[in-house]
From TrEMBL:
Signal peptide: none annotated. Keywords: DNA-binding, Repressor. Residues 3-63 form the HTH tetR-type domain. It comes from Salirhabdus euzebyi. InterPro entries: Homeodomain-like_sf, HTH-type_Tx_Regulator, HTH_TetR. Residues 26-45 bind DNA. GO terms for molecular function: DNA binding. This is AcrR family transcriptional regulator. Pfam families: TetR_N (PF00440). It comes from the Bacteria.
Length: 202
């Protein structure tokens, strides 16, 4: 598929920002990588900040699609066991994080989180907050269906997801360095199995 000039600018900026950080990249570097004049970039983006905002907004919209709609949960959970639901969710999430563009945006968020308020908001609200809130609803429904033990669903969401966040961060660092991820992937699977053992309603 042929990219438009605006899409090429987006991709070049993402590639460079994810390697050097926003402050370490100039407009000249972006346009050189795209193969256009600097003046041409301004036909598509007001400035470098507008490119970063477009990248982060794209991530926010794209990431929201990794979770199923809350109003579909009753139907999904009524026919799905907790083990299948969690392992499928983890597989889908990992697949998203393995996508080259997803990895670059995630690295960019990590680099920019203390400089750029929008990056901070996405990490805290979308990545952490909404994922945990979603899982709280999932566990609440599983408890009501008597599929798992009646623990506090908020605590369950935190206890399940925060180790996943940490392990995925380690996974992405190893992938960036071209190192073996076998051990961290094994830890992720062990975490899910251990969690299921704890919450399983015998």
């Amino acid at each position: 598929m042929t990219l438009t000039t605006k899409e090429k600018i987006f991709q070049a900026a993402l590639d460079l920002f994810s390697q050097k950080g926003f402050s370490g990249v100039s407009i000249r570097e972006i346009t050189r990588q795209v193969g256009i004049k600097e003046s041409s970039l301004y036909n598509h983006f007001k400035n470098k900040e507008a490119i970063l905002e477009a990248i982060l907004t794209h991530f926010r919209v794209d990431f929201s699609k990794t979770l199923p709609p809350v109003d579909s949960l009753d139907k999904i959970l009524s026919t799905t066991e907790p083990e299948t639901f969690l392992k499928t969710g983890h597989s889908n999430f990992k697949q998203y994080m393995e996508d080259p563009q997803g990895q670059k945006i995630w690295r960019l968020l990590q680099i920019e989180q203390f400089r750029e308020p929008f990056a901070r908001e996405i990490i805290l609200k979308d990545f952490f907050g909404e994922t945990v809130d979603f899982l709280e609803i999932v566990f609440q429904k599983m408890i009501a269906m008597k599929k798992i033990k009646a623990f506090d669903p908020k605590i369950l969401a935190i206890e399940y997801q925060y180790p996943v966040f940490s392990l995925l961060a380690e996974y992405n660092i190893l992938k960036f360095d071209g190192k073996d991820t076998t051990q961290v992937e094994s830890r992720l699977n062990q975490h899910i199995d251990f969690f299921l053992e704890v919450i399983r309603n015998e």
